[in-house]
Write a structure and sequence with these properties.
The longest helix has 18 residues. With 134 residues, this protein is of the alpha/beta class. The protein has a single domain, classed as Rossmann fold (3-Layer(aba) Sandwich). The chain is built from four helices and five strands; from the N terminus they run βαβαβαβαβ. A five-stranded parallel sheet has the order 2-1-3-4-5, sandwiched between helices. 43% of the residues lie in helices and 16% in strands. The protein is globular and about 40 Å long.
């Protein structure tokens, strides 16, 4: 069974639910995904949630960046999702891990990491989502 980790904004729980269903319908094992964290316990819970997420990136076959539109920005990628993508890319380049790095869509020019994403796409290190990819 193929394994997937979904990365993206935890503030988009409706979209997270949609992608969880999508991957489960394709018989993927979803190792991790963006979770809403209780704000009152954020500092207590976040460190372990973050560690667990990165450990699951190491275990996965596919890292799917769910860069849905957010706050009027097309293909939004926040700093956290960018860091997770870079961690997956580091696994691929440095440790020769066989991992697919897939972005839902091309981010707009407004996204801070646009130039890096564009370069990595041109180099073939990452790819844009196509229904046949997953």
């Amino acid at each position: 069974m193929q394994k997937v980790v979904i990365a993206g904004s935890a503030g988009l729980q409706e979209e997270v639910t949609k992608w969880l269903k999508y991957f489960k319908n394709l018989n993927y094992e979803v190792l991790d995904y963006p979770r809403a964290i209780d704000e009152k316990r954020f500092m207590e819970l976040y460190p372990q949630i973050h560690i667990d997420f990165l450990e699951n990136v190491v275990k996965t076959d596919t890292l799917f960046i769910m860069n849905e539109d957010k706050n009027g920005v097309s293909g939004y990628i926040g700093y956290e999702a960018y860091a997770e993508l870079l961690f997956g890319l580091s696994q691929k380049l440095v440790y020769k891990k066989n991992i697919e790095l897939v972005l839902l869509k091309m981010p707009s020019l407004e996204v801070g990491c646009y130039e890096e994403i564009d370069l990595w796409l041109k180099l073939g290190w990452i790819k844009l989502y196509e229904k046949e990819d997953v």
